[in-house]
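[job 0412] stage=fold_complex status=start
inputs:
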Amino acid sequence: MSSYPDPTSSAAAGSVLAPDPFQQAAGEAGSPALCAAVRDRLREGGLRWTPQRRALIEVLAETDGHVTTAELVERCRERDPATIPSTVYRTLDMLEDLGVVRHCHRPDGREEYHVLPEHEHGHLYCRACGGCWELERDESDRIVGMLERGQGFAVDLSHVTIVGRCRACRETG
Amino acid sequence: MSSYPDPTSSAAAGSVLAPDPFQQAAGEAGSPALCAAVRDRLREGGLRWTPQRRALIEVLAETDGHVTTAELVERCRERDPATIPSTVYRTLDMLEDLGVVRHCHRPDGREEYHVLPEHEHGHLYCRACGGCWELERDESDRIVGMLERGQGFAVDLSHVTIVGRCRACRETG
DNA sequence: TGCGTTATTGCAACTCATTGCAGATAGGCG
DNA sequence: CGCCTATCTGCAATGAGTTGCAATAACGCA
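[job 0412] stage=fold_complex status=done
writing structure:
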């Protein structure tokens, strides 16, 4: 959570949003501000603010980068051992609908989440060593542009993981 | 199973193989030839030829394109109601090690399989309508080439699914 | 403060996929 | 044909993630 890209890059394709108060809160002041921002947003939408949701949001606020659902459940359990996994899953879904987090899939199919705003990026994943890298910005721009122009297809980069073998693994055979 | 690309495109990256007898069998004559070819290959490797494996291979031989694991289990059960899912999964893994099938992941993380040889291709998947298309050959060539040149990364196209929104869904909002 | 409404949670069941272990069996050899 | 070896299967358990339903609780209003 170290950089704040153009907010449109975190928004649904085709939609241009003004900077969002709770996304700024996520970036600026960590857990208390994020909690307050999310709580307000929930109430605007007629949704509830619960202790379970607070706990998860606090965990997310102190999380950098990608995190597995198992890790999130475990960290919520540290705060409240009565945490139920299905509640965590549901809350994550809700937070994603709200635009607070975003999920993506590892190459083995498993889910991971990260907190927005984060500039949308794709990944390279090496099947030999398990290493994972961000796509370079110019590479992803080219892919996005090519598919936009060619097929009118709007790429969702957060779900792009290009799988193969990295240079080092290719050299060691 | 209508075209027979350069066999190297079905092989492990970095390895160049002569055309493989059982891959030709898969393409030429359907179930009996594929069964025989796989059986021979198994025996060469000290592995066993079992009724469960035969049933799965027969199902695969009559399958065109991608198929979910649930579908494969169901189809094996039609042949033998005593089919056990874990055996199907294990057999699919083994067949993939042998180069007979290949798996990939749907955008929701679930697995699908298809029978080789099939020219390796990536996919476009629209999250709005669920439509799925093959990447155009020139598009995938460009992606592959760009990452090869830029980071020395060898792309495994069968695991590339680019997620986003298709032209039609973008136009309908 | 109490009540009513309804969103949310806990629980249990489910699907998908993996894995350990003991019994079954494929298949080579004498 | 019988024996032996070791691969393979069936079974049960597990983890990841989803979902229906009844009970709980958030929260607005009087």
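[job 0412] summary: Residues 46-48, 50, 52-53, 82, 84, 86-87, 90-91, 109 of chain A lie near DNA strand C (CB under 10 Å from a C1').
[job 0412] exit 0
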